[in-house]
Design brief:
This protein folds into 3 domains: 35-380, Glycosidases (TIM Barrel), CATH 3.20.20.80; 401-797, Alpha-Beta Barrel (TIM Barrel), CATH 3.20.20.80; 804-850, no CATH class. Helices cover 32% and strands 15% of the residues. It contains 23 helices and 22 strands. The strands form 5 sheets. An 8-stranded parallel β-barrel has the order 1-2-3-4-5-6-7-8, surrounded by 4 helices. An 8-stranded parallel barrel has the order 9-10-11-12-13-14-15-16, surrounded by 4 helices. A two-stranded antiparallel ribbon has the order 17-18. Strand 11, helix 16 and strand 12 form a beta-alpha-beta unit. Helix 6 runs parallel beside helix 7 (206-222), helix 7 (206-222) crosses helix 8 and helix 16 runs parallel beside helix 17 (571-591). The two termini are 43 Å apart. It catalyses: The enzyme specifically hydrolyzes (1->4)-beta-D-galactosidic linkages in type I arabinogalactans. This is Arabinogalactan endo-beta-1,4-galactanase. Its EC number is 3.2.1.89. It holds the Pfam family Glyco_hydro_53.
């Protein structure tokens, strides 16, 4: 089965790589969210906005602004989307934020921004302003007069500007920008001159800087646009009066100069709402008629200390906004980086979903908008609804209490160690084995690896299936009288048609056939004894796993175009391989003579299976059951064809005198991923629609398979592969947690510890780690939180008969030599059955019928 695991993680990694292409701006200046959204969503749910009443004095003139400077870059280069509180993508984010109380969209513009600051380009600003205006919003342009963002201690001139001509260049530049905006149909409602100026506008001295700002204000006002200034917050709020005085003197120098707004950039860690109130009061006293606003502020909803939340963000915004408003000052604020998807201090999380704090702008105006949220359960680990989906199960004519209704749950021990819980249909936490037993599962398959750890003792992952892990499952299964199938891989990790890697401890003996046979014998015998010691009821032992192309490093050289014919069709290789099989089988027969011996191929190809069985027969391999892997999504796009192929293989086993069972099978409960590691079969897979992708589809797939399997008396039943391999922590936003748990307990398809043993081409994709969580969580018979699906009831509700016995009828000559393949006859306990013996040349029974 391992071949699927590589496909899984490479998709995930590829998706991550693609998401980062085209990034042209460093995100280090933002609190960018990189881990689970659980904390934020919990806070969002608890964010009670009804406590916030309409602010007295708020009105149409209040600036309720959101900075969207990154919008074009995010939309076009980063391919970001914006969603409402329910996680549904909005068709127009400007109309959406307007519905949440925003009335002004602001953008910053640099003169000649470099690549890393391309979001500050005038071209981007034009497009954003046009979209905002179309949505009925007011607009503001912050002219930086620099090639990059400016701050109180950094007002760097654009390239090519000199200090002595800076004022002249700035005024000329302003006129050019306003003309371009007008031609583009993007003339703003207001222009903010400078950003966070601290007596150093254009690197000029205090007075000269104020004069330059005043002259530019005249240019802006002449264009019929409102004017604002943005200043760095003075250490003492009352010191804003000095700025007001200087601006007043400077504006008197230029007829027509002046301003409408005086803005101050605020930082929550430094400036309280009381500070803002004092600023407002000072402006009202010293600059009557001018509107004081917060020209830039942003408040985190998450921080590294765990103190910030949606609730604290909401309160901070409301308090700041309220501090700017009274009957004399319409006030307002512009929220910086409001549009930045994934920043810890924006209004949109990493998936683009709006934070309820955005709605505070509406609540502050007395509008109680709907902020009810929807948390995608696949994303955040909630109830997916799968457990509530119905599934109709019908009785199957040949399904008896003795039919193998098995499940491979090899990952169970690792999952349990990581804290995974399972529940019964009443919602009570219950042992997984009890849930399975109570719902008709009667056989448990356990894969066994020799030593799935590295030299540091770190797990390879994949369930960490050493003997000890299997014994834990066996002890629990024994409590419920469930039979076991021991699946020996004879490897330290996944053994499948692509790779059958020799255990580390046996590598020194690789070229010593006799020693290798002894290794196989000893390991098989010792392991079986350990299972017997814990009370395990071993009903079947599988010697090798999916050995279609070989085992124990005797495999085709794929680089030379070799195939299974170069192993099983090569007399020398086949003899060695069959020697290994016979060594394992000998141990089984000696330790647990009543157990059935199974040989397992992944292939459903009739010709291939027949050739390999020929090699076993030529070399005297003694086994009871021929097993296959039967995954309908890999058998073509027709259930009819797949089932016909299954019937042919079962008949092939019958013709060789062997019983038959499906060693691995499964079907989809959905196409969704629940743990952050992409699934083997997901959306878009060509053959994923053979049955419906839901619990009913699982029942239908199992029904068709069992009807086919049990139509012959040599058909024993099937094992569902990893039917309980659910996430450690549900929700694909928890992918990192699930990856960490895999490294620690081995819960995912592979763990970091497998590096060096497992091939790099499986552990890495494009140089990136490809190990992680489960790739099978959408094929389980449980939901992602451990609750059973209705499809699990198939194993109990499909049974129509009591217990059966299987009679193996050997037809021999007078010397005891078999002259016809063994025939298998199922007889329900307590009943009789009459059969007709086969006819063949040279043998005539005295009685044609046997009862």
């Amino acid at each position: 089965m391992q071949k699927v695991r590589k496909l899984v993680t490479t998709i995930m990694i590829a998706a991550l790589i693609t998401a980062m292409e085209g990034t042209t701006i460093s995100q280090l200046s933002h609190y960018v969210k990189a881990d689970t959204n659980t904390t934020s969503q919990t806070s969002q749910a608890e964010n009670d906005l009804t406590q916030y009443k309409k602010i007295n004095g708020i009105g149409d003139n209040t600036v309720l602004g959101a900075d969207f400077s990154h919008y074009q870059l995010q939309k076009n280069a980063w391919k970001k989307v914006w969603k409402n509180y329910k996680g549904i993508e909005v068709s127009n984010v400007f109309e959406y934020v307007r519905s949440q109380g925003i009335n002004t969209i602001s953008v910053k513009v640099a003169v000649n921004p470099a690549k890393d600051d391309s979001y500050l380009s005038l071209e981007y600003a034009k497009e954003t302003l046009k979209e905002a205006k179309k949505a009925g919003l007011k607009t503001n342009v912050v002219l930086l007069y620099s090639d990059k963002i400016t701050y109180g201690n950094s007002q760097e001139l654009p390239g090519g500007w000199s200090v002595d001509k800076a004022a002249e260049e700035a005024n000329k530049y302003t006129k050019t920008v306003l003309e371009e905006l007008k031609r583009a149909g993007a003339t703003p409602t207001m222009v903010t001159i400078g950003n966070e100026v601290n007596y150093n506008f254009l690197n000029l001295s205090s007075w000269d800087g104020y004069c330059a700002m005043a002259e530019i204000s005249k240019t802006v006002k002449d264009a019929g646009i409102k004017t604002a200034f943005s200043f760095a917050a003075p250490e003492k709020a009352s010191d804003i009066q000095y700025i007001i005085e200087q601006l007043g003197y400077a504006c008197e120098k230029y007829e027509g100069a002046g301003y409408d707004y005086i803005g101050v950039n605020i930082y929550p860690n430094t400036h309280s709402d009381s500070y803002v109130k004092e600023l407002k009061n000072t402006v009202e006293e010293k600059a009557a008629g001018k509107q004081m606003i917060i020209s830039s502020v942003k408040c985190p909803w998450k921080d590294s200390e765990g103190k910030a939340s949606i609730t604290t963000q909401t309160k901070s915004i409301y308090d700041y906004l309220q501090a700017t408003i009274d009957e004399k000052n319409a006030g307002g604020l512009i929220y910086n980086d409001a549009d930045f998807v994934g920043a810890w201090d924006s209004f949109f999380d990493e998936n683009g979903q709006a934070m309820s704090s955005l709605a505070i702008f509406a609540y502050a105006q007395g509008n109680q908008v709907d902020v009810s949220t929807y948390k995608d359960p696949w994303e955040y680990g909630g109830d997916t609804g799968l457990k509530n989906l119905t599934a109709s199960v019908k009785k199957l004519n040949n399904m008896s209490q003795s039919s193998i209704r098995g499940m491979d749950i090899s990952s169970y021990t690792a999952l349990k160690k990581a804290g995974v819980k399972y529940y019964d249909f009443d919602g009570k936490e219950t042992s997984l084995l009890k849930v399975l037993h109570d719902n008709g599962v009667n056989y448990i398959r356990i894969r066994i690896w020799n030593d799935p750890t590295n030299e540091k003792g770190e797990t390879y992952g994949g369930g960490a299936n050493d003997v000890a892990a299997g014994l834990e499952i066996a002890k629990e299964a024994a409590q419920y009288d469930m039979k076991l199938l021991l699946d020996f891989h004879y490897s330290d990790f996944w053994a499948d048609p692509a790779l059958q890697k020799i255990p580390k401890a046996w590598k020194k003996d690789k070229n010593d056939t006799e020693k290798m046979k002894q290794n196989v014998y000893d390991f098989t015998k010792d392991t079986i004894k350990k299972f017997q010691e814990v009370g395990a009821d071993i009903g079947m032992v599988q010697v090798g796993n999916e050995i279609t192309n070989g085992m124990l490093d005797i495999m085709p050289d794929y680089s030379k175009g070799e195939t299974y014919k170069d192993t099983w069709g090569n007399a020398k290789n086949a003899k060695i391989l069959c020697g290994y099989l016979k060594a394992g089988i000998k141990a089984v027969r000696e330790c647990t003579p009543k157990a059935l011996v199974t040989l397992h191929l992944e292939s459903m190809g009739y010709g291939k299976c027949s050739e390999i069985m020929n090699a076993w027969e030529r070399n005297g391999v003694d086994y009871d059951v021929f097993g296959s892997s039967f995954y309908q999504f890999w058998q073509g796009n027709s259930s009819k064809n797949a089932l016909a192929g299954l019937q042919k293989i079962e008949n092939l086993a019958k013709s060789r005198g062997k019983m038959y069972a499906v060693m691995e099978t499964s079907w989809l409960n959905s196409l969704k991923d629940a743990d952050g590691t992409s699934n083997v079969i997901g959306e878009g897979h060509a053959n994923a629609k053979v049955y419906s992708d839901d619990p009913q589809g699982q029942v239908d797939a199992l029904t068709d398979m069992y009807q086919t399997l049990l139509s012959n008396d040599n058909g024993l039943g099937a094992f569902y592969w990893e039917g309980a391999w659910i996430p450690v922590k549900a929700g694909w936003t928890n992918w990192k947690y699930n990856k960490d748990m895999s490294d620690r307990y081995g819960t995912g398809w592979a763990a970091q510890g497998a590096k060096g043993y497992y091939p790099d081409n499986k552990m890495y994709y494009n140089g990136q780690p490809a190990w992680g969580g489960s790739s099978w969580d959408n094929q389980t018979l449980f939901d992602s939180n451990g609750y059973p699906l209705q499809s699990l009831k198939f194993y109990k509700d499909s049974v129509s008969k009591g217990k059966e016995q299987i009679i193996a009828l050997k037809i021999v000559d007078k010397n005891g030599k078999e002259v016809y393949p063994t025939q298998y006859v199922k007889v329900e306990v307590g009943k009789t059955r009459k059969i007709t013996l086969p006819k063949f040349s040279g043998y005539y029974p005295k009685n044609k019928n046997i009862t």
